[in-house]
Amino acid sequence: MQIRSRFKELLLPAFTQKLQPKSKTRILMEKIKLYIKESYNELLTKVTWPSWDNLMETTIVVLVGLAIFTLMVFVMDSISNFVMDNIYKLV
Predict the structure, then answer these.
(1) Tens digits of residue pLDDT in 19-58
(2) Would you list the domain boundaries of the chain?
(3) Which residues of 3-21 are buried (b: 16+ CB within 10 A; e: fewer)?
(4) How many Å apart are CA 31 and CA 41, to the nearest integer?
């Protein structure tokens, strides 16, 4: 009999109470919280981080590529500036 009364005492109020609908802000906050938890879990378990040597190599490749691209833009700008100056001198 104690088990039955304990069951009624613990679970019956949960079934008899009317469920309150969740507000939109509460649902949004729960979604944001879930997103942060999943993102953190993914960063810890699924992401493979590069080694220090690999990171340095790719950084050097990016910097060299950037220098080449910058030089190309500078040369093209200088050429167009030279051409435009000569056109303006004619006019």
Answers:
(1) 566 788 888 999 999 999 999 999 988 888 899 999 999 9
(2) 23-90
(3) eeeeeeeeeeeeeeeeeee
(4) 15
Measured distance CA(45)–CA(32) in Å, rounded: 20
**Number of residues assigned to the chain:** 91
Residues 6+ apart with CB under 8 A from 86: none
Q: How is residue 45 written in tokens?
A: 């378990």
Helix or strand (DSSP H, E) at 42: helix 24-45
CA distance 29 to 22: 11
Taking the model in full, what pTM does it have? 0.51
